[in-house]
Amino acid sequence: MDRSMASVDPGLKPLVIVAIGGNALVRAGQRADVATQRTNVGSAATHLARIAATHRLVVTHGNGPQVGLLALQAIADTSISPPPLDVLDAESVGMIGYLLVEALSAHMEPEAVVAVLTRVEVDLDDPAFGRPTKPVGPWLEPGLAHALAASHGWSLVEGPRGGRRVVASPRPVRVIELDVIDMLARSGRIVIAGGGGGVPVAKRGTRLVGVEAIIDKDLTAAELAIGLGAEQLVVLTDVDAVYRDHGRSDATPIPVATSRDLRAMSFPPGSMGPKIEAVCRFVESTGRPAVIGALAEAQAVLAGTAGTRVLPDEPVAGAAAPIAGRPGRSLDL
User: Fold this and answer.
1) Model-level pTM?
2) Which of 16, 179, 273, 278 could make an SS bond with 218 (beta carbons 3.0 to 4.6 A apart)?
3) CATH T-level fold of 3-230
């Protein structure tokens, strides 16, 4: 059944998919130790719990800083071969999922929160495997970055702060555990799923096997939102809205836009670009709204009084009516 077009059981609270970035859990300049992440996750959980009071909630999260640090730790012991990226993905997702379950359990019955280690299928022919673009881990001093790249076959991106590892980021094709996530969400539980974009797997013959990649968590959030028939996709990040002319002194926030408006603009591929693609894909597939905004303003972003609200260009046949939001007009480009 295509849940994206299915009617919602009137006895259930509306379902929202919330995506939070890995950088919200380890902020710029912070040490990525567990104590720091617990503090940040605790703050995020407060906002998520308020949303859960009025909505069914599926949460996905990034893992770029965490998986990159695990990769650096793995190569420190030269007596063993470092684990592949799919295993490191699973390790980091398990840790973050546990921290989120722990923090959310402080606001409700512990049994009401569950984390699902989620596999996401990708296509081995995806051109992303030949074009690594997804940054992972910290910025490294240039000499060290190049030495590690040479000895381990890493691809690098260089910037003012040094060098940073980049890996392949193929598009999600299918969420393997979608039915399990749906069942748990319908039972009223808060579900942590699709963490880190999901553990990437691909078909080899009749089997699904792990591959060296990190899937963008926002694109996986869109797949979850479409597949589960969510009322809204909510992308929470460290900026308060999508900005026109981002990076310029005259940049201005965009309160409301259609997917066509946003697709006519250019956004950085390593940051806002995937978020724009994710919300556009959701609204174009379902006819329902999506929002992008700051984690600290999560409730206002969900209500449409903060952040950027994204609407479809035209109604989608069979889709539920969009939720009313704040007044405004779409961006005139």
Assistant:
1) 0.87
2) 278
3) Carbamate kinase (3.40.1160)
